[in-house]
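Exam revision sheet. Question 4 asks you to relate a sequence to its structure. Input first:
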Amino acid sequence: VCSYDEMALKDLPVVVNQILKVTGQEQIYYIGHSQGTTIAFIAFSALPELANKIKMFIGLAPVATVSFASSPMAKLSVMPDFFIWDLFGRRDFLPQSHMIEWFAEHICAEQPLSKLCGNIFFILCGFDEKNLNVSRTPVYTEHCPAGTSVMNMVHWAQAVHGGKLMAFDFGARGNMKHYNQVRLCNT
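Answer key, structure tokens:
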């Protein structure tokens, strides 16, 4: 269970170093999509030695801010963190499952229902019908949501609510424990 700043500062360096070790290369190309770009922005700015191992960073649908997010999911960011924890627990959030795969294959593949299935993405990402290729909805639905942790969703809610990307806010006591300070700095 982790959030995007932990993915950036802990997971990404391990992955990059393993790739370099296995391939024998000194640098790699990094292609990130959405949250993968956020992780890269954080990691490459906070860890210059990691940034030096990247030959080129390509960002697809880059996310450097969520202060203008307007999707129904973003509006949930006004809920207090404890409410999200109580509602969803401390576990996976929308993990991939056979049920989602079946739903994509048997429901979303049917033409009249493709638009309805497309609304799942509008709830998560905001409504913009011209950006949805309805004929591909079954493929999108089968792979998204791909799952994350409730902690990561809380972290995104903190970013939307606070208007900027910051380290995960554990509260005053938790921040002292994790960061040795009460208030957070920008990530």
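Marking note for examiners. The mean pLDDT is 84.
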